[in-house]
Design a protein that fits this description.
Elements lengths: L1 E5 L3 E3 H7 L9 H7 L2 E3 L2 E2 L6 E3 L3 E4 L3 E7 L1
Parallel strand pairs: 1-7
Antiparallel strand pairs: 2-5, 3-4, 3-6, 6-7
Length: 71
């Protein structure tokens, strides 16, 4: 599991995908989320604005499993 460090209280799922190198630009988030299965803490969710907090575990189909860690 890869750790993605943030320095704010939360990060939006669309921004997270960019930090995790699943997409290269923010504009790719919407189509990416429509085509892939994303689970957050075991629950499917593909909302680009979904807030991710410290300790959340995100599984991205075709990209990997990540943990959000606040610095």
């Amino acid at each position: 599991m890869k750790r993605i460090e943030i320095n704010t209280e939360y990060i939006a799922l669309g921004q997270f995908l960019k930090l995790a190198d699943c997409i290269s630009t923010g504009g790719q988030a919407k189509p990416f989320l429509q085509e892939r299965t994303i689970t957050i803490n075991g629950t499917a969710d593909n909302r680009r604005g979904r807030k991710l907090y410290n300790g959340d575990v995100v599984d991205v189909e075709g990209c990997g499993r990540f943990e959000v860690v606040r610095e």
